[in-house]
Design brief:
This protein is of the alpha+beta class. It has a 4-stranded mixed β-sheet, sandwiched between helices. The N and C termini lie far apart (137 Å).
């Protein structure tokens, strides 16, 4: 009886004074588990940005061979001719006029005529871009000495297309390049297709200006 009274009194005391009932201690299955330390963050390897966003291949060799293997379509030009009708006539005239001492080459790129040596004052990129601007320009006729295999004169046959603004600017650049490179050079209007050009005087004047 006394035990029951004591239990009731304790219960009322705890209830009135807000004592929280003791919680049973529980044992967790994870208490003694040792977690492995987190691995240090490893930076991603550096990947250089692509130069050409729309190309699957960056290097020129990869571009060439992969396009060949993927079946790129190539065809010769529809005309099948290297020269226009007017240029064919003028080449024949040049061979008649100078064939004893010279031979005539057609559609020669400036990259075959002009060299751009490495030099200070310009970055490699500037030199590369500058050379690419003119290296693929094709000259109509290059007259070469049979005896020395050196250039006697370069000739551009101008038709009406050379009046277009882009061609006018191209011809300005071309004239400046030839003068800078000390290569004898002449523009010949298509109306003068049957008139023998004075290539020897042009060559003499260019060489004398170099000395």
């Amino acid at each position: 009886m006394d035990a029951i009274v004591k239990y009731i009194l304790k219960f009322l005391t705890d209830f009135l004074f807000g004592k929280e009932p003791e919680k049973k201690k529980t044992t967790s299955g994870y208490r003694n588990v040792h977690f492995a330390p987190k691995a240090a963050h490893q930076p991603e390897p550096y990947v250089p940005p692509k130069k050409y966003r729309d190309s699957r291949w960056e290097e020129l060799d990869d571009l060439f061979w992969n396009m060949m293997q993927k079946g790129v379509i190539l065809r010769k030009r529809e005309s099948g001719c290297l020269l226009s009708n007017a240029e064919i006539i003028y080449r024949k005239n040049l061979e008649d006029w100078f064939g004893r001492h010279c031979y005539v080459s057609c559609q020669v790129s400036l990259g075959q005529l002009i060299d751009l040596p490495e030099q200070g004052g310009f970055s490699k990129e500037e030199q590369s871009r500058f050379f690419s601007m003119f290296s693929k320009m094709a000259m109509d006729f290059v007259i070469v000495s049979i005896k020395t295999n050196k250039i006697v004169c370069v000739i551009e046959l101008n038709d009406s297309s050379h009046k277009a603004p882009k061609r006018v600017e191209r011809d300005r650049k071309l004239l400046a390049l030839m003068k800078k490179s000390k290569i004898p050079f002449m523009f010949v209007d298509i109306s003068q297709i049957d008139v023998e050009p004075d290539i020897w005087t042009e060559r003499k004047n260019t060489l004398s200006a170099c000395s």
